[in-house]
């Protein structure tokens, strides 16, 4: 297999022209790390407007899990587009919406029968989840995690805390969200050894219960099974069982945000399945519909029993997005989730080999195809080396590898789950050269 072909300087002439137009009219809030102007995509490959080829480690930020522009998904969309584009699924009926709700039920990460509310994005799924928990419990408070990311609308933003820029000047938000530390074994709180991180977080949770958040007032805990934007941080194995045990004592719901970690990304359909606990409510988006705007709040049927009209929207369950999601789930179930586990193992081992060559790679972490390398200045201090991380992303791009940052100093690898060993080998070769070049 050949390495990606870069034919022009980057950005090329056509890309430059589009980027200049973009700079005049698009919101200044957007943060593009690399000057990639996409023209077409296929499987794990991206082609820009100047004919350059790139290997994708982003999946359009965790979305195209079954491969970019998957022909089976495209075919289903084409067929649906000829029939009807929209007919508010909250006010009327159509089959794709029910079929998709049945498909989601088949893959639910809890035993009880489930129910589904459809949305159009991750943040909107989170809004539905937190509203549902409050509605069902009639309790005012929530607990979220430092470093968590759940979206940018005011409700989900009240939980989001992966970067301060996301919150600065936007207060007041929902005031009833209390944040506690996420169990990070690589950078544990000062004075806490990695083996005791779960103990620390559970102690902190109970301190919250005893002080600012009486547990009988807490509706739910909202948590990512693996923190995404916060830096691909995997909690220790004992964390979720211990957390669930505490929540069950007080009838507090566990909402897991699987927007980035779900839909096969980690080698199981949902990342929470790695940790042996059942959530009560799940937020889903990104990988569910291969790029069509679609999200869902999936909950136990005993939880999602709100009254008619208590929550609703216009576009949720859109038929074109629904047929894309139905095919996406079929594809995930027919081997891609297993492939994510298998190739993920190969990939992480190759990253660990790379780590042996560069002590600036402080940590290699992740599960399945949700992987990251974390750059440090000093491997003992584990201090964040974002300058180097940013340089490596640029160097990799020049060589045809598209990567994104996560957290303060990590590069994330979230490629389509169709990835093969040969692609990993190319990615590692380019990363090796890019780190060398970035170090100068
Ligand atoms: N939750 C998580 C875990 C996410 O990673 C994201 C997006 N990065 C969101 C919610 C928000 O999704 P969206 O951008 O579709 O609103």
From TrEMBL:
Its cofactor is pyridoxal 5'-phosphate. The keyword Transferase applies. GO terms for molecular function: identical protein binding; pyridoxal phosphate binding; transaminase activity. The keyword Transferase applies. Keywords: Aminotransferase, Pyridoxal phosphate, Transferase. PROSITE patterns: AA_TRANSFER_CLASS_3. InterPro entries: Aminotrans_3, Aminotrans_3_PPA_site, Class-III_PLP-dep_AT, PyrdxlP-dep_Trfase, PyrdxlP-dep_Trfase_major, PyrdxlP-dep_Trfase_small. Transmembrane segments: none annotated. This is 4-aminobutyrate aminotransferase.
């Amino acid at each position: 297999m050949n390495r990606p072909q870069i034919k022009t300087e980057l950005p090329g002439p056509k890309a430059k022209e589009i980027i200049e137009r973009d700079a005049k009219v698009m919101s200044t809030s957007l943060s593009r790390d690399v000057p990639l102007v996409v023209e077409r995509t296929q499987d794990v490959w991206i082609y820009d407007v100047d004919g350059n080829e790139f290997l994708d480690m982003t999946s359009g930020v965790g979305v195209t899990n079954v491969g970019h522009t998957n022909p089976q998904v495209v075919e289903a969309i084409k067929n649906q587009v000829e029939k009807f584009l929209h007919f508010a699924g909250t006010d009327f009926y159509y089959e794709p919406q029910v079929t998709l709700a049945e498909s989601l039920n088949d893959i639910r990460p809890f035993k009880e029968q489930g129910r589904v509310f459809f949305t159009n994005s991750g943040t909107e799924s989170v809004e539905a989840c937190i509203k549902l928990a409050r509605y069902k419990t009639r309790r005012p408070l929530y607990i979220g995690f430092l470093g968590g990311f759940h979206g940018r609308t005011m409700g989900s933003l009240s939980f989001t805390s992966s970067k301060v820029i996301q919150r600065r000047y936007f207060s007041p938000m929902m005031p009833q969200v209390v944040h506690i530390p996420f169990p990070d074994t690589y950078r544990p709180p000062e004075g806490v050894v990695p083996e005791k991180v779960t103990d620390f977080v559970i102690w902190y949770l109970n301190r919250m219960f005893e002080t600012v958040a009486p547990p009988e007032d807490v509706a739910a805990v909202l948590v990512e099974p693996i923190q995404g934007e916060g830096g691909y941080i995997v909690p220790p194995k004992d964390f979720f069982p211990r957390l669930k045990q505490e929540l069950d004592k007080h009838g507090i719901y566990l909402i897991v945000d699987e927007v980035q970690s779900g839909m096969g990304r980690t080698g199981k359909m949902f990342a929470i399945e790695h940790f042996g606990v059942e959530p009560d409510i799940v937020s889903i988006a990104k990988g569910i519909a291969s790029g069509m705007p679609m999200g869902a709040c999936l909950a136990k049927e005993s939880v999602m029993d709100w009254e008619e009209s208590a929550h609703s929207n216009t576009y949720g369950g859109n038929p074109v997005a629904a047929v894309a999601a139905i095919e996406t789930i079929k594809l995930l179930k027919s081997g891609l989730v297993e492939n994510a586990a298998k190739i993920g193992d190969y990939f992480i081992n190759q990253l660990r080999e790379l780590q042996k060559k560069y002590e600036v790679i402080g940590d290699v972490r992740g599960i399945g195809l949700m992987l990251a390398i974390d750059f440090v200045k000093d491997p003992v201090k584990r201090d964040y080396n974002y300058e180097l991380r940013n340089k490596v992303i640029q160097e990799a791009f020049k060589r045809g590898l598209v990567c994104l940052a996560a957290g303060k100093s990590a590069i994330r690898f979230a490629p389509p789950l169709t990835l093969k060993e040969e692609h990993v080998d190319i990615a590692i070769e380019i990363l090796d050269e890019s780190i060398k070049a970035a170090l100068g």
